[in-house]
Amino acid sequence: MASPVLRQKLSDGKFFVVPGIQDMIAAVVADRVGFDVVYGTGYWLTASAYGLPDAGIASYTEMVDRMRTLARTSKAAVIADADTGYGGLLNVHHTVKGYEAAGVAAVQMEDQEFPKKCGHTPGKRLIPPADMAEKLRVAVDARTDPNLVIIARTDAMQSEGLDGVLRRLEAYAKAGADVLFPEALTSEE
Known about the structure:
- By secondary structure, this protein is of the alpha/beta class.
- It contains seven helices and six strands.
- Helix 6 links the parallel strand 4 and strand 5.
- Helix 4 runs parallel beside helix 5 and helix 6 crosses helix 7.
- The relative contact order is 0.14.
């Protein structure tokens, strides 16, 4: 069962800080500091656990294992990076089911083509917004726990600018995403 803490914090509408966790030592430190939500980052966890870059090299199996361990180790609700959903629509369904069973509070997916790149690196290729919206509909339908939050991330800023980011996020909201995440914005404006 997903922790209800994240969904409650979102419904409260107040700002809160979520630290990125690269390993289980950082998870224990975050608990001691008092964070009640943490982010299981794809890049940091794969770099720490496997010495790999954030390029879609770590498999679904490896990542769900890391997220399960993080959810078991941390007292906090875990936001889990699920990259692109690890493939097509069937993979997205399987990913949400696996991450939900691992005990995370949220699954975050991005709109990049596979193989993906770190969201802050140049040359990212994106899937069409309609394809990502379909992935999000599948993700929403796959969850069985109403506390599980679906986060839609777009990496469109570099290639499509702010207008593209906003168009994509609107489509993702209509597809049922609970949280919208514009990655790698370049300024406060």
